Amino acid sequence: MADTTRRSGSRRLARERIALLFARAAEFYPENPAWSNRCVALARKIGMRHRVRIERPLKRRFCRRCSAYLVPGSNARVRIHRGNVVVTCLACGHRSRYPVGRPQE
């Protein structure tokens, strides 16, 4: 049985599918948040299977603990505390901390 993750186009295709799933999650969220969470779970599964990193802007849109799609003001609280952005998932209470500013090189 051939290893399909080694093919040249599979990682590129996986990145495209992950981006599409996050776009769908944003689309589905107002009417059915459970579908959005399912899209995030599928995107993470694709990323792990093909060993593709989820890009930083997309990575910050879901909770690492419960895989919930995060929408600030709806199911996520965003605060700035001591030079960090603190995003709290209101589904599970997990806090993610990111530095506010980073020197661009």
Features:
3 strands; 105 residues; 16% strand; alpha+beta; 3-stranded antiparallel β-sheet
Summarize the structure in words.
With 105 residues, the chain is an alpha+beta fold. Helices cover 39% and strands 16% of the residues. A three-stranded antiparallel β-sheet has the order 1-2-3, with no helix packed on it. Helix 1 (10-28) packs antiparallel against helix 2. The N and C termini lie far apart (45 Å).
N-to-C series of helices and strands: HHHEEE
User: Mean pLDDT, nearest integer?
Assistant: 91
**Which residue ranges are poorly predicted, with pLDDT under 50 across at least 5 consecutive positions?**
none
Strand content: 15-25%
Helix content range of the residues, please? 25-40%
What does the overall shape look like?
A: globular
Q: Separation of termini? A: 45 Å
Largest sheet: 3 strands, antiparallel
Radius of gyration: 15 Å
Strand order of the largest sheet: 1-2-3
What structural class do you assign from the helix and strand content?
A: alpha+beta
Oligomeric state of shown chains: single chain
> What's the tally of helices?
3
Number of DSSP E strands: 3
